Amino acid sequence: MNSSIFPFLVPITAIICWSVVSMVKHANSSPKGTPQQDPMLQAALTQAEAHATRLEERIDQLERILDEDIPGWRARNAR
To answer: What residues contact 66, with CB distance under 8 A and at least 6 apart?
Structure first.
């Protein structure tokens, strides 16, 4: 390499690195302000949460029934 380019390598490298970092920061930055949530999405999430809670209650009830009727069923079915 020609030694006359060496003094320019550091500034050129710094400019390229600064550009890359700026683009990455810009791409990762969130939009200003809090975005409004979609009411339909919020309603669907609330409904899904209620459904999951009911399913957990049903599973707990079924496990209690199995514990009474078939003692040791958990040990036999553990994998």
So the answer is: 73
pLDDT in tens, the chain (79 residues): 556 666 667 778 888 888 888 888 877 775 665 556 788 888 999 999 999 999 999 999 998 998 999 888 888 877 6
What whole-number distance in Å separates Cα of residue 18 and Cα of residue 24? Answer: 10
CA distances from 49 to 26, 46, 72, 78 (A): 35, 5, 31, 28
Q: Catalogue the long-range contacts made by 58-65 (C-beta closer than 8 Å, 24 or more residues apart).
A: none
Token pair in block for residue 21: 């970092």
Residue that is written with structure tokens 């459904």 in the block: 51
Q: How many CB atoms lie within 10 A of CB 66?
A: 14
